[in-house]
């Protein structure tokens, strides 16, 4: 089965049953639709015009709302009921049930009070340990974290999905799992590289309490693997402005596999668009508007074009987030903020089984409970998604550029992994597009997915001749 859920600074859903509602301080948090602070503020462009009026009848200086699950954190405590009168919780649940026509709702009052100390504790611990943190570490502020796992209303168990949606979602997941096997692991992602006295996405790393940072040594801990599809700025490729992520050139089978999955990326794009528009309509609307405004080429777009006679024209036939990242194999990273062109990030998480050395498959017997740890933590809100208690597909929306977040360490059987993904409009990708346009938009300054394939084939042929 699968389920959805929502959080203060992010939204998560488990395709399963009952919704989870969460109350954010002075903000309207529409579960499966809103996040906290600015995103769900009544004045925010992401808020719904009809929600404040509806909520006003129920809230008393605290606006709250949620439609499927929303997770939020309480003031430094897991005692989520102490910050809101009992009648407020009852009113919130009653409202959500009536508004959505759902029998069950979970309400979690949250506050950002004490977030600075919490973030400092997490970041100090990761520096002290020289690696991403683990929720099982005795020094991790486990009791100060609100762990969310309740399923929220969205589609229901896998077997209750309509046949068309079920097929589309599973096809999209299979495409992404295949992509993780035929693309190289990304080794220069900032969230997996911790440098003393450096900044990660604009946030200074905190030294362990009572200690002073005296050198700028790289504390480099690799946990799991990250892969990507889409468009990014060139790295060491001469006379290029914007390029598609590359393919492994380890074997003809791998290259053929990559070539074969490319036509399926448009389905992946459609699945993510459908998922976010259902989870958080206002965020989806903003994301699509930003993609058009920034002329962001979709990760599913395989060709770019530019008409110098019409410089205001688009460069692709699909504007969407330019980056799709895929993680697996007990991936974890340091608490960080992203360097994106927008504050919208959205992703899917699911468990899968290893079929052979290069193939992962969905299996009804394999779920998140087989994997220990790996929680998705939003440090600014002391809140985390406890995947081990979730079922099936988990969808999360969060403000990657705004809030401190990370994936905690995990361990799993050798034949099982948890996949994690995200779609984002990256700042570097946007700058690459701008640079390419200013240079005249020549196709010679672009490396497409097909050119990646052609280059990989040439390398394999050269390698074969050399032997």
Secondary structure: elements and pairs:
Blueprint: E1 3-4, E2 10-16, E3 20-23, H1 37-40, H2 51-56, H3 86-100, E4 106-109, H4 115-129, E5 146-148, E6 152-153, H5 163-182, E7 193-195, E8 199-200, E9 203-204, E10 218-220, E11 225-233, E12 242-244, H6 252-261, H7 265-279, H8 281-293, E13 323-328, E14 345-356, E15 359-361, E16 372-373, E17 376-378, E18 383-385, E19 394-398, E20 405-407, E21 410-411, E22 416-424, H9 427-438, E23 446-447, H10 449-466
Parallel strand pairs: 1-19, 2-6, 3-4, 5-18, 12-23
Antiparallel strand pairs: 2-19, 7-10, 8-9, 11-12, 11-13, 13-22, 14-15, 14-19, 14-22, 16-21, 17-18, 17-20
Helix pairs in contact: 5-6, 5-7, 6-10, 7-8
Q: Can you tell me the overall shape?
A: globular
Quote the average pLDDT.
75
The structural domain count equals 2
- Number of helical regions: 10
Kindly state the percentage of residues in helix: 25-40%
Strand content: 15-25%
Described by strand count, sense and barrel closure, the largest sheet is:
11 strands, mixed
Question: Would you report the number of β strands?
Answer: 23
State the distance separating the first and last CA atoms. 49 Å
Summing up helix and strand content along with how strands pair, one would put the structural category as alpha+beta
Uncertain segments of ≥5 residues (pLDDT<50)? Answer: 1-84, 152-157, 196-221
Radius of gyration: 22 Å
Organism: Dendrothele bispora (strain CBS 962.96)
Domain Tet-like 2OG-Fe(II) oxygenase: 220-410
Protein name: Tet-like 2OG-Fe(II) oxygenase domain-containing protein
InterPro entries: 2OG-FeII_Oxy_6
